[in-house]
Amino acid sequence: MITFIWICLVLVILSMMGLLYRVFCGPSIPDRLIALDAIGVMIISATALLSILFATRFFIEVILLIAIISFIGTVSFSKFIEKGEIIERDRTSK
């Protein structure tokens, strides 16, 4: 069982390296954004595998924190790509 977890961890790390290539050499900005989001998922899965490997529940809180930060980053980047700004200000007042 432990060997299988190590194999999965190595495969996750290899996929993260492939996604890093897509982030740096992606053909378009949305492709890079999707790769960044997938890297967030891979980090979450690697943390979960480490949690199983070390038989601890401490990493569950870390997984939740990484998921929240990844979601906020993805939404912010998507909004910036679509509209060119993240926080909209009302410029029509006064």
From TrEMBL:
The chain crosses the membrane at residues 32-55, 62-81. GO terms for molecular function: sodium:proton antiporter activity. One of its GO terms (cellular component) is plasma membrane. It is found in: Cell membrane. It is a multi-pass membrane protein. Keywords: Antiport, Cell membrane, Ion transport, Membrane, Transmembrane, Transmembrane helix, Transport. It holds the Pfam family MrpF_PhaF. PANTHER family: NA(+)/H(+) ANTIPORTER SUBUNIT F1 (PTHR34702), NA(+)_H(+) ANTIPORTER SUBUNIT F (PTHR34702:SF1). NCBIfam families: PRK12600.1. Belongs to the CPA3 antiporters (TC 2.A.63) subunit F family. This is Multicomponent Na+:H+ antiporter subunit F. It comes from Sporosarcina limicola.
